Amino acid sequence: MPCEIKLATLNGAVAEIVKMVQSALSKADRVGETLLVLGLALSGIENEEIKANMEAALRAHAPALADKYYICGDVFGSVATASKDGGICLIAGTGSNCLAVNPDGTIKTCGGWGHVLGDYASGYDTAIRAIRTIFAVTEGMVSPDENPPDVTYLRDQMMDYFKVLTCPFFFFFSSILCM
Q: Do residues 43 and 74 touch, judged by C-beta distance below 8 A?
């Protein structure tokens, strides 16, 4: 289950994490046991305050879940898993984020600003750019001099998927505005 802490409530995210850990313990015939350490590499865990809030919420929700917690951001967890000498992790899924950990432990980041401000190259960014291009070309907002792409197939697929029979703005504007 994706866990973007900024888009979920803290208690909701904690409840899902506890449920997943308890399910894993059940499948391993370890119901009721306390983990020595629970490591969590989660999207949205960007600073010490968020880490501390997450750990406090986990301890309050399930006091016997783990003795210790190691909580970090998803990109840091990926680099730490791959190499003790640092590395680079680029996540370009629903969102996007990039982190470089140098051998001396210094960290550099870019991206990870969320879908509103710029998760460039993410699934959201790619989809919204495609939809905007479809609308711009369909509505004649792209000059023929700019050599607009043929968006017929994508437009038809999008309208079919969303069960739209006419212009996507049909529900908001008069159909006279639509081509």
A: yes
Domain of residue 70 covers 10-111
Q: Which residues are bridge partners to 72 per DSSP? A: 41
In eight-state DSSP terms, residue 33 is: P
| Residue in 4, 91, 89 with CA at minimum distance from that of residue 45 | 4
CB 139 within 8 A of CB 149: no
Domain identity same for 57 and 90: yes
pLDDT value of residue 25: 96
Residues in a beta bridge with 75: none
CA distances from 105 to 14, 24, 83, 85, 100 (A): 29, 33, 12, 8, 9
Per-residue model confidence as pLDDT tens digits over 41-81: 888 787 899 999 999 999 999 999 999 999 988 888 888 88
Domain boundary residue among 56, 83, 111?
111
Per the structure, the count of domains in the chain is 2
Q: How many residues in total does the chain contain?
A: 179
Give the number of other Cβ atoms within 10 Å of residue 159's Cβ: 16
Question: What average pLDDT does this structure show over 158-165?
Answer: 80
Judge contact between 94 and 2, C-beta under 8 A: yes
Considering the domain architecture, whether residues 28 and 74 belong to the same structural domain is answered as: yes
Nearest-5° Cα angle at 3, 27 to 84: 80
Global pTM reads: 0.61
